Amino acid sequence: MVTEERLNTLLAHANPVADVSKIDLIEVGATTYLATLEQRSSEVTQLDTREKDQKAEKTVRQRWLVAAVVIILAGIALVLVIQSDETPVADQPGPDEILTEYADTRNSGDVDGVMAFYAEDAIVENHPLDDDGVATGTAEIRALEEQIPAVQGSGDGQEIIDMVVSGNTVTFNTRFFYGADGTRNSSGEPGCAGAKDSQVTVEDGKFTLVVWGPESPTQCLE
After folding, report:
1. 113-148 pLDDT tens trace
2. Are 172 and 99 in contact, with CB atoms under 8 Å apart?
3. C-beta separation of 168 from 194 below 8 A
């Protein structure tokens, strides 16, 4: 910055006069000019400061606006989640109910209906009509289920009893019945166990694993 002293020196060199009064006039003009420059410089500085403050305020307002929008959207999303959780869901049948329905369908001889209970990659172990012991997938399982109507006579069937549910797995026993009246023989003796301690696992309403227990054709369950 050019100081007053420096400006006076420059003016003195540029205008060498012997008249002291004129020099004083020049000095007075220089002083006034310098004051004007300083005032304008101050005004420019103040203006620049105001612009910076206004930009900072605008930035703060924009950030608060963005934060407010984010909070509003988050609140809306939370409300939608809560409402979706409160939406009533139709009661799904339990694994024991599905197993009972399966037995009824099987007893009716509806093979297609029976296969609807199995998942595509279901596994059946120890099926009474399976010499290999394990059937994997609906094709192999269907080959076994198709034999049931031929083995069972008209009105014959198998009842699911003693079911114990643990999560999505059911442990159960089965009991054969013969004839429409559900008796084993002409004396009215109840049917005897077809399989003991069998298990079925149900996922998404489908059988994924069925493990038939050992057959006990002569041991009756009380």
Report:
1. 999 999 999 999 988 777 778 999 999 999 988 887
2. yes
3. no
